[in-house]
Input
Amino acid sequence: MEGAVFPYIIRMAYQNEWEDAMALAWKTFLEFEADDYEPEGIRSFEDFITDSALHRMFIMGAYQMFVALDGFRMTGMITVRGNSHISLLFVDKEYHRKGIGRALMEELCSYLRAELGIGRVTVNASPFGAEFYHRLGFKDMQPEQTSSGIRYTPMELFLR
Output
């Protein structure tokens, strides 16, 4: 964000921030996403963010997460699995439309490109998030789908 003062810190998450990040994801999911899903999809999402295997992958460094902080308050988070698939991106309701989602995405993509040589990222965009990803340049790979009650549109972005 050229010329703008961005008062938030974007950085890799510390191991002790897992619970706060998943709580932010759950709270934001319930506020903005849950109405688009059947009960099966809500349960599937909750099962995903509370999965101990996923937490272990994070602790071992196989599941990266970046966080946005306003002082000590976590305002946003983004995760990537398999070094190229965004699996969670959530910004606290009070911080929507302030550039945090975009900044998280830019930091993650910069890391993937520079540190891992990744040239393409994918995401299964929720109905609520699809327009956000389109604004960032993501293109639909297939029409909307449903799996385990989760509605999503597979998208991709080629990194420059």
